[in-house]
Amino acid sequence: MPVDEVVQQARRDLAPVPRVPGAPKADALLVADGVRRSFGGVNAVDVEHLEVQRHVITALIGPNGAGKTTFFNLMTGFDKPDAGRWDFDGTSLAGVTASRVAKTGMVRTFQLTKALARMTVLDNMRLGARSQPGEGLFTALVKPLWAPREREITDKAMSLLERFKLDTKKDDFAGELSGGQRKLLEMARALMSDPTLVMLDEPMAGVNPALTQSLLGHITDLRDTGTTVLFVEHDMHMVRHISDWVVVMAQGRVVAEGPPSEVMADQAVIDAYLGAHHDMDLGDDALLDEGGVIDAEADAEAAAEVPTPTEEKAP
Amino acid sequence: MDFGQLATNVLTEMLGPTAIAYALAAIGLNIHFGLTGLINMGQAGFMLLGAYGFAISTIQGAPVWLAFLVAVAAAVVFALLLGLPTLKLRGDYLAIVTIAAAEIVRMIGRSTALTEVTGGAEGLTGNSFKATFQDASPFPDDRWTLGPITLATNASNSWWLRIVGWGLVLLACLFVWRLVRSPWGRVLKGIREDEDAVRALGKNVYGYKLQALVLGGIFGALGGVVFVLASSVQADSLGRPVTFNTWTILLLGGAATVLGPVLGSLLFWAALVFVRGFLRGVIPPDTLSVQQIEQIGWVLVGLTLMALIVFRPQGILGDKKELAINAR
Amino acid sequence: MRAVACRDRSVALRRGAGGLLLTLLTALSTLGVVGPAHAATAPCSPDDATACLNVTVTVPGTGPAAGVDLTVAGQGAAPVQVTTDDAGKASVALTAAGDYTVTVDEATLPAGTTLKDPAANPATVTVALGRAAGRIVQVLPPGADGAVEASPTDDTGATATPDDADAAGGDAEAGAEAESSAEASAAPGTNRYAQLLLAGTVFGLLLALASLGANLIYGTTGLSNFAHGELVTLGGMVAFLAVQRAHLPLWLAIILATAAGALLGWFLNRFLFRPLRRRGVGITQQMIVTIGLSLALVSAYLFFFSAQPRPVVSGISQRMQLGPVQISAQSLVSVSIAVAVLALVAFVLARTRTGRATRAVSDNPALAAATGIKVESVISQVWVVSAALASLGGVLLSLYLNTTRFNFGSTLLLLMFAAITLGGLGSPLGAVIGALVIGLVVELSTLVLPNDMRYASALVILILVLLVRPQGILGRAERIG
Question: Does the N-terminal peptide bond of residue C122 adopt cis geometry, omega within 30 degrees of 0?
Answer without folding.
Answer: yes
